């Protein structure tokens, strides 16, 4: 999955496939992060339950207070919010280093179960591997967040592209959101230091962040596998699998769903389990905060460009409006509460037992997120393949050259002003697309192969997002009266696409913008909230 995430980051592309597909991808992207926000809140409830808090108190804190706090964080100006992300990211990395250090310090005792698997979940080791890859996709949701956050990035007016040549970005259209690119246009003026710094940041993020994330996951998983038996009763099982009858001491089971906490709680170090559980809880809430940011910006990007006078469009435009600090407050509130009702369904069970109620919902939501992000990744790869093929003919390049457009991969010199040129294309894009489709069609179906009971829930969990995505794409084609084909990519169409990309690039530059307003009191924030709702 780490290799796939890296490959997708080399293929961030837009505007080269289909307008309706772009809208559907935007909806899928919003759905992934909005559902992910609810899934992480549900996960936080499970970790919070480690301290055996009363259900009523936990429901109030986790399902009401914490979402409101995360919404408050997201109401800050993007500059302040960025520092919040830097701070939480630094803390999370520090926690990771501490956790890995203690895992190394705790002696390994399991060496000979490398090919073991749970025969209650899978019929064979290959099937278990397929299921693991499908589940692991949830952990890689977000490696492309730099593309979504670019919508609020601003370059200084001195770097205005109107004073130089054109640029290009390639990515599946998420309606109005600038993307990091593989193909950029050669500027007439040399790049200044600020532009080079931005370009280097994008290069580093796209090339190395998936690599670092993969290393962290592999190292953590390896250390856990060397410390825990795969049959340990404390390890979480899939919710549809009955608890093993071989468990002698049922009271020992379900300490936590986190193997790190299980190892810490079973060690001789007093209080280590509590510390690890706090680390994990903090990480989950920080990730939920990021998910809310991406979901709200995606929804705002989808809706603020709607210009027709249909009632539905007027209603949707309401979510695209921003407040005085350019924050899409309405889209943020809707994204936070669109699926917030789902975790409350645990309350009907009368218990927050990690084995049953909460875990089953987390599995369903996580699978939805995994499927949604793989759909988006597949469309990004398809868009890059279309982009790559459209600029290969010499006559297309001649038209672009005549218009002053110079695709990055055909430059003679290594221009540093614009984002990078990826390597081994289009092979990387084709392989990434194929693997995404294999996960969606084959690996997701592995959950159905060894179940003796009803498979309806697992089928819907695995394939419902795909079916809804295809239905939405078809519905958009019908409603908009569009052709049942991809956009044409002749020389003039390609030129127009690059012109649109220039407009998106210009939108990321500052044009005598007013400086951010100082922070306001809670009373004023409440007034803004009421006023936004009344509008």
Automatic annotation (TrEMBL):
Record field: transmembrane: 21-45, 57-81, 93-111, 123-147, 202-226, 278-306, 327-344, 364-385, 427-448, 460-479
Cellular location(s): Membrane
Taxon lineage: Eukaryota, Fungi, Dikarya, Ascomycota, Pezizomycotina
GO terms under cellular component: membrane
Record-annotated Amino acid permease/ SLC12A domain positions: 16-154, 207-479
Ranges of Polar residues composition bias in the record: 159-170
One of the protein's GO biological processes: transmembrane transport
Pfam families listed in its UniProt record: AA_permease (PF00324)
Main location, first listed in the record: membrane
Annotated stretches, region: Disordered: 159-190
Domain of life: Eukaryota
Keywords for this protein: Membrane, Transmembrane, Transmembrane helix, Transport
Record's protein name: Amino acid transporter
Organism: Colletotrichum tofieldiae
Lipid bilayer topology: Multi-pass membrane protein
């Amino acid at each position: 999955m780490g290799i796939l995430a890296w490959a997708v980051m080399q293929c961030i592309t837009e505007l080269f496939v289909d307008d309706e597909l772009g809208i559907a991808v935007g909806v899928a992207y919003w759905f992934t992060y909005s559902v992910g926000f609810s899934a992480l809140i549900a996960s936080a409830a499970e970790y919070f339950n480690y301290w055996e808090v009363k259900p009523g108190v936990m429901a109030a804190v986790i399902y009401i207070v914490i979402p409101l706090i995360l919404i408050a964080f997201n109401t800050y100006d993007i500059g302040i919010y960025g520092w919040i992300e830097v701070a939480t990211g630094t803390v999370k990395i520090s926690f990771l280093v501490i956790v890995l250090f203690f895992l190394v310090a705790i002696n390994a005792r399991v060496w000979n179960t490398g090919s073991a698997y749970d025969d209650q979940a899978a019929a064979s080791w290959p099937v278990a591997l397929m299921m693991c890859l499908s589940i692991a996709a949830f952990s890689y949701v977000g490696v492309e967040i730099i593309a979504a956050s670019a919508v609020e990035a601003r370059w200084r007016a001195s770097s205005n592209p109107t004073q130089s040549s054109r640029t290009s970005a390639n990515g599946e259209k998420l309606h109005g959101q600038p993307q990091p690119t593989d193909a950029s246009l050669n500027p007439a003026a040399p790049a200044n230091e600020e532009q080079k710094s931005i370009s280097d940041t994008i290069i580093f993020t796209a090339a190395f962040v998936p690599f670092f994330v993969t290393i962290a996951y592999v190292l953590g998983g390896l250390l856990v596998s060397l410390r825990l038996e795969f049959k340990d009763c404390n390890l979480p099982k899939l919710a549809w699998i009955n608890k093993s009858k071989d468990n002698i001491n049922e009271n020992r089971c379900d300490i936590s769903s986190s193997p790190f906490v299980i190892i810490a709680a079973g060690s001789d170090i007093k209080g280590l389990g509590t510390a690890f559980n706090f680390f994990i809880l903090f990480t989950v809430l920080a990730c939920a905060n990021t998910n809310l940011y991406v979901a709200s910006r995606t929804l705002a990007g989808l809706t603020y460009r709607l210009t027709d006078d249909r009632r539905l469009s007027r209603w949707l435009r309401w979510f695209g409006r921003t407040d005085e600090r350019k924050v899409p407050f309405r889209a943020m509130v809707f994204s936070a509460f669109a699926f917030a009702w789902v975790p409350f369904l645990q309350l009907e069970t009368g218990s927050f037992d990690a084995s049953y109620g909460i875990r089953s919902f987390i599995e369903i939501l996580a699978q939805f997120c995994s499927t949604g992000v793989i759909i988006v990744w597949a469309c990004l790869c398809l868009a890059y393949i279309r982009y790559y093929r459209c600029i290969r003919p010499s006559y297309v390049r001649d038209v672009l050259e005549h218009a002053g457009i110079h695709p990055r991969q055909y430059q003679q010199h290594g221009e540093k002003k614009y984002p990078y040129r990826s390597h081994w294309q289009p092979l990387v894009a084709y392989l990434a697309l194929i693997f995404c489709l294999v996960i969606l069609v084959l690996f997701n179906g592995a959950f159905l192969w060894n179940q003796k009971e009803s498979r309806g829930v697992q089928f819907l969990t695995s394939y419902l997002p795909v079916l809804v995505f295809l239905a939405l794409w078809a519905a958009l084609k019908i409603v908009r009266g569009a052709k049942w084909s991809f956009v044409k990519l002749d020389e003039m169409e390609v030129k127009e696409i690059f012109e649109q990309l220039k407009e998106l690039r210009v939108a990321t530059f500052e044009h005598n913008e007013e400086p951010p307003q100082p922070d306001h009191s809670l009373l004023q924030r409440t007034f803004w909230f009421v006023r936004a709702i009344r509008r």
